[in-house]
Write a structure and sequence with these properties.
The N and C termini lie far apart (30 Å). The chain is mainly alpha-helical. It contains 4 helices and 2 strands. It is globular and about 35 Å long. Helices cover 47% and strands 10% of the residues.
Length: 83
């Protein structure tokens, strides 16, 4: 499964390909949905979210800036002393 994931990633040319590769890998672990958040490298730029969650959910997640509350954010976790 890991080899297939790496091959799919290597062949990816756009966000749709990445979404498919990640969805396939997540499904291999019996996770029907996944979300991969990308913090902007330049302050003020919009964050990116690659996900197979319904667009209604992802739109709300981004609009409400829930990524800033997510404990999976390493910078936030460090600020709060999680790690």
């Amino acid at each position: 499964m890991f080899e297939n994931f790496v091959e799919q990633l290597s062949a990816s040319v756009d966000a749709a390909d990445l979404r498919e590769a990640m969805a396939s890998a997540a499904a291999g672990f019996d996770f029907p949905l996944f979300a991969y958040f990308i913090y902007p490298s330049v302050p003020g730029d919009a964050p990116r979210l690659i996900s197979n969650y319904p667009s209604r959910w992802t739109s709300r997640y981004l609009q409400q800036r829930n990524h800033s509350l997510d404990p999976g954010d390493p910078a936030r976790a460090a600020r709060l002393g999680y790690f």
